[in-house]
Design brief:
- It is a single chain.
- By secondary structure, the protein is mainly α.
- Helix content is 74%, strand content 0%.
- Helix 2 packs across helix 3 and helix 3 runs parallel beside helix 5.
- The longest helix is centred in the middle third of the chain and has 36 residues.
Length: 156
């Protein structure tokens, strides 16, 4: 998906745009006099593909994050924290680091938006766990454990 997104981003350079315009002219049957229509269609097509790519990247990222979040199981009456961040969170952070390293070819705006959205999703998910109606009591130990997890998130 990242490679396809990057490829469509190059649709704005002159050789790719010229090829796209020619291709669309052939598909639509427009002649040389109507290349401005093909030009507009090519630009619109690349823009739409990039937007779909951005949405797809984000949906897949959130879906994979949710798989990690399903592994989270806090013991709400924990007497003592583990002394380190939860294993599921460390695995999630390692995954996110590797994903964001692969985003080096993406436009800066998209990479930043993906990172920020992922962090917001993680924060909301942890808050949702804390506020779940099935959680009847919370010990000091689990609060300390969650604090360790949040410190790890902040370092990320």
């Amino acid at each position: 998906v990242v490679n396809n997104y990057v490829s469509t981003s190059y649709g704005n350079d002159q050789p790719t745009r010229t090829y796209g315009e020619r291709y669309i002219s052939e598909l639509t049957g427009t002649g040389r006099g109507r290349t401005h229509v093909a030009r507009l269609q090519a630009r619109s097509m690349f823009k739409d593909i990039r937007a779909e790519g951005e949405e797809y990247i984000f949906k897949k990222l959130v879906s994979k994050m949710n798989e990690f979040l399903e592994l989270a199981s806090y013991e709400w009456m924990l007497s003592e924290p583990q002394g380190h961040a939860s294993p599921w969170l460390m695995d999630l952070i390692a995954f996110l680091k590797s994903v964001f390293e692969s985003f080096t070819n993406l436009p800066t705006r998209l990479a930043q938006m993906s990172c920020m959205s992922s962090c917001q999703h993680l924060a909301r998910s942890i808050m949702t766990m804390l506020l779940d109606e099935n959680v009847k009591a919370i010990s000091t130990g689990i609060l300390q454990q969650i604090d360790l997890d949040l410190v790890q998130c902040e370092m990320f």
